[in-house]
Amino acid sequence: MTTITTDDGVKLHCEDSGAGTPIVFVHEFAGDSRSWEPQVRHFSRRWRCITYNARGYPPSDVPQDVERYSQERVREDLRCVLEGLDLRGAHIVGLSMGAFATLHFGMRYCAQGAPARARSLTLAGCGTGAHPAVYAQFQQDARALADGIERLGMAHFAATYGHGPARVQLREKDPRGFAEFARQLAEHSATGSANTMRGYQARRPCLYELTEEMGRIDVPVLVMTGDEDEPCLEPSLLIKRTIPQAGLAMLPRSGHAINLEEPALFNRLLEDFLVQVETGRYAARDAATRPSIWGPGGKP
């Protein structure tokens, strides 16, 4: 275990396992570094695996000021972890909130015309609330969830939000794993979770307004989603269509926490991707195959 201090003075708890090419795992809103245990156990046999708790998630610091939580700040926290551990040529793997951070890192630090600061990006479960048809409602719902966390606490949040329509798949497949997920979620800081929901989730920009920036990402990208994670299906297609080196994997009968629901399949798909990248066999798709980024229906 180690601690990284960000450039705005927040201490982040990091764990470092294995040796070799580094993989940095960036967790979702309802998880923390522990959520990546099935991946760390598998990949640390051949790779160096780094997990960390985002700001607001103990034992990382929990800033009290909501203005210290934002999409930009979470992106820069990822940069601080890479710089603090002197990680060069790392693969970055994010889930949900962590996938948004990874995507924004890619737009800022892996764009055409500059040396990339990551070797590849994996975006799993990325896109909740991003579609223009639901974007404003998502922001409103996120603010209401933050209010509820502050008023009712994390145990109530875990018993409600934690049982949402894209979470029940884990409960049905792996009751023991779901119970662990819910227990860990209930242990989170109410202040940190509310500030993350209000400062980051409720204020992140709409992906559909960032297609030009996404299109400039110049490293291999793997997009992964469960086919029952409805809020992420259309955004995953948008990301796949927009980024020249993106591939899309859809896991059947799966919801949001795909790394926990289907760890063997998730690990195999991710490892196949990483090996292709490492061996130089993952290239941009032929321009002739690129559809309109909006699909057959046109821009929403």
How are the SSEs placed, and which strands pair?
Layout: E1 2-5, E2 11-17, E3 22-26, H1 37-43, E4 48-52, H2 71-84, E5 91-95, H3 97-109, E6 120-124, H4 135-152, H5 154-160, H6 168-173, H7 175-186, H8 190-199, H9 211-215, E7 221-226, H10 230-242, E8 246-251, H11 258-261, H12 263-278
Parallel strand pairs: 3-4, 3-5, 5-6, 6-7, 7-8
Antiparallel strand pairs: 1-2, 2-4
Summary, kept brief:
By secondary structure, this protein is an alpha/beta fold. The chain is built from 12 helices and 8 strands. 42% of the residues lie in helices and 14% in strands.
Structural features, described:
This protein is an alpha/beta fold. It has a domain at 2-128 and 207-282: 3-Layer(aba) Sandwich (Rossmann fold). Helix content is 42%, strand content 14%. It has twelve helices and eight strands. It has helices at 37-43, 71-84, 97-109, 135-152, 154-160, 168-173, 175-186, 190-199, 211-215, 230-242, 258-261, 263-278, and strands at 2-5, 11-17, 22-26, 48-52, 91-95, 120-124, 221-226, 246-251. Helix 10 links the parallel strand 7 and strand 8. The model has no long low-confidence stretch (mean pLDDT 96).
